[in-house]
Amino acid sequence: MIRVLVCDSISEEAVKVLEEAGFEVDIKPGLPPNILVNLVGEYDVIIVRGSTKITSEIIDAGIKLKIIARAGSGLDNIAVNYAKEKGIKILNAPEGNANAVAELTIGLILALLRKIPQANIALKEGKWQRGLFKGLELEERTVGVIGLGNVGSLVARKLRCLGCRVMGFKRSNLHEVARQLGIIPAKDINHLLGVSDIITLHVPLTKETWHMIGEQEFNIMKNGVFLVNTSRGRVIDGKALLKAINEGKVAGAALDVFWHEPPREEWEWRLIKHPNVIAVPHIGSMTEEAERNVGLIIARKIIKALKSN
To answer: Which residue of the set 3, 211, 270, 282 is catalytic?
Structure first.
């Protein structure tokens, strides 16, 4: 019998699909690494979301592992190359939570422009400070979308519906994707950085995207630009972002992802607590619909992969 270890929460429906396929499913969320490394050898499949890290040590201990599955998009919490060297298949479900992340992105953009969190906090503190919270309208602003995959494409479409001038950038096939989305293709990333009023990031964390936005890139941006990151924390040089906000180059930033999760560096907390920063604890995919979708998608992909062997 195929044994499946679920290390982070997935929907009950997804578990039922796996069990109906004849798999034995154990749900053990929040296992510390030292416990996981002792258990993983009993399983053929391991399912994670964003919390559990699958290191080379855990992979070595997983002597029966055939599949490591991420019920979500990014794979940066999995030692992917090492797993592939061991002949272990890697599966994920980036399509399952794309709308959840895209909707959060739009919400963060609106919250930044209209100063919604600041106004909410002030009123809850008993302060009626209506004059302090004059914001900006999103319509007709130029929004640069970096990355036009599952999430970035949805963000671009939603921004067009809100009346924005949307410019997009991706490393390959840009003009065709931009044509399909009805947006403006950037000449290059510097072109996008230089003309955008708002910049939103939707790229995976790779060697190429690590610190893709740093001091040099902030210098190219307009004064008073707004920045949103719901992709991965380390695609931005956080210290450079803090400097840009303190100097007024960046008028505001909204962050769902961080250098460390949870944050632990002093500069990370200074960034999070900055009055011009909206920070939420990596909740982009945390909707009931997304949890159901990624669970069902990854369950079906696991079944298909094992049946094809």
So the answer is: 282
